[in-house]
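User: Can you recover a sequence for this backbone? Please restate the input before giving your answer.

Assistant: Of course. Working from this structure:
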């Protein structure tokens, strides 16, 4: 069976003036059986009836199945980071290495995309039997990574849930999530993040943190607070009784991180803590 959207080895059945027709090996030379055109400009020199060739099958501009020796950036069920070439009335078109650009329908966009951006998408077959892209990639990601606790990873943000956290495609391939208590800053869909593995769940999915180890993070947080104080003229109306959401909005850190950092600054005689806030010494 010739399959849409995957790389496959097919065999030359017969030649025409505009290319060669390919079929499964068992059907070569038979009058009946499924076959597909490989356009003449893509036919390798010297190829003859019965020869095998690796191709990718998709649909051309007239919605007809066609073979190509050019391999796209992703195949059926895979995920890849692709550029947005244009946005039209029916959706966005992405570059994926083939003559015909890949449609990303509006219904498959998790955010409104713009020309020039790059987004992580999966490839699927829609109800009209056409290859399309989707930003809803949760079910495309794998859970068989070799990562373990403490490993450093890089990934792309593809979703957010206020109850759970931020979803990340580690290596643009594996399931990862930054739990909400670890999501210390606002991350955008499509943003590249670097972090470390907190733990590997029983189902193989990775829990991540974008914070440094506690002693390093405390230094980073302390520097951030000092910079904010300097920019504000030496005083900020935040202290250990301030609301967690106010602290996060101002400093991009949890209340516990804030308290640890100002405690370090206080012990280092760099700030004064009062009921009104914190002041540079």
């Amino acid at each position: 069976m010739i399959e849409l959207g995957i790389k496959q080895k097919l065999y030359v059945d017969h030649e025409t003036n505009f290319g060669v027709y390919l079929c499964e090996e068992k059907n070569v030379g038979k009058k009946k059986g499924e076959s597909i055109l490989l356009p003449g400009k893509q036919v390798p020199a010297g190829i003859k009836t019965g020869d095998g060739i690796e191709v990718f099958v998709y649909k051309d501009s007239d919605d007809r199945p066609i073979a190509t020796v050019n391999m796209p950036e992703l195949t059926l069920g895979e995920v890849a980071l692709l550029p947005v070439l244009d946005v039209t009335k029916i959706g966005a078109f992405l570059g994926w290495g083939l003559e015909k650009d890949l449609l990303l329908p509006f219904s498959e966009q998790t955010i409104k995309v713009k020309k020039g951006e790059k987004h992580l998408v999966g490839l699927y077959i829609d109800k009209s039997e056409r290859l399309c892209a989707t930003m809803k990639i949760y079910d495309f990601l794998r859970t068989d990574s070799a990562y373990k606790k403490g490993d450093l990873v890089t990934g792309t943000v593809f979703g957010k849930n206020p109850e759970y956290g931020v979803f990340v495609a580690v290596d643009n391939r594996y399931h990862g999530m930054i739990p909400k208590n670890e999501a210390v800053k606002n991350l955008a869909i499509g943003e590249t993040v670097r972090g470390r593995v907190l733990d590997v769940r029983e189902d193989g999915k990775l829990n991540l943190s974008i914070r440094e180890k506690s002693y390093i993070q405390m230094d980073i947080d302390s520097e951030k607070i000092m910079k904010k104080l300097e920019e504000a003229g030496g005083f900020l109306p935040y202290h250990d009784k301030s609301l967690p959401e106010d602290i996060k909005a101002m400093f991009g850190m949890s209340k516990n991180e804030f308290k640890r950092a100002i405690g370090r600054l206080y012990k280092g005689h760099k700030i004064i803590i009062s009921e009104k806030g914190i002041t540079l010494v």
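That completes the design. The chain has a mean pLDDT of 90.
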